[in-house]
Amino acid sequence: MLPLEKELKKVESELAKDDRIAAAFLLGSAAREEMRSESDVDIAILVEPEATFTGKDQVDLVIALEQIFGRKVDLGILDHDNLIYAKEAYTKGRCIYCNDSFYRDLFGATTFGMYADLRESRKEIEDAYRT
Fold first, then answer.
1. Helix orientation angle between 83-92 and 101-130, rounded to the nearest 10 degrees
2. How many domains does the chain have?
3. Which stretches make up the Polymerase beta nucleotidyltransferase domain (predicted)?
4. What is the CATH number for 68?
5. Can you give the pTM of this predicted structure?
6. What three-state secondary structure class fits 98?
C-alpha cells in the first residue's frame, strides 16, 4: 500500500459528503510520494460551476482533512483566475476524487487551451522586450 492510501480512502468518503465538489487533486510532495514527517498535504478541489464554496466551507473542509491526515492541509480551489495553479494540478497532481468526470475533463481541457493562449501572448510580450 502506498503512503497515505488508507487516509485517501477516508478523504474520498469525506469529499463525497459535499455534492458541490466535482473533483479533488493531491499535489506537491504527497503526489510525488516524497513526503517527509514535517510535510503538509496539498489538495486542490474543483467546485461545480454554479456552486458557492465559501471561506467557512474551506475552513471546515481543512479541519476535517487535517483530522484524517493528522497533519496540516493546504487546500486550494481550482479556477481560471489562477491558471498556472490549475494547469499544474492537472499535469502534476493526482486525481483522488471525482464526482463529475465530465466537468473535471471539460475544466481540464479549457485550462490547457487557456494556458496555451497565455503562453503565446506572453511570448509576444517577452519578444517585444527583447528587441
1. 120
2. 1
3. 9-101
4. 3.30.460.10
5. 0.89
6. strand
